[in-house]
Amino acid sequence: MSKNFLKIISAAIMFLSVSLCSVTVTKAEPEFDINARAGLLMEYETGTILYEKNIDQPLPIASVTKIMSLCLIFDEVEQGTLKLDDKVTVSEYAANIGGSHVFTDAHWQYPASELIKSIIIASANDACIAMAEHLAGNEGTFVARMNKKAQELGMNNTTFVNCTGLPVEGHLSTARDVAIMSRELLGHKDYFKWSSTWMDEITHKDGRVTGLTNTNKLVRFYDGCDGVKTGYTDEAKHCLSASASRNGTRMISVILGGETSQKRFDDARTLLNYGFANFTTVKLVNKDDVIEQQPAVKNGMDKVMSVHPAWNVTAVLRKGEEKLIEKEIVLPSEIAAPIQAGQKVGEIIIRKDGTEMMRVDLVADRDYKDAKLWDILKRIISLW
Question: Catalytic pick from 7, 10, 63, 352?
Answer without folding.
Answer: 63
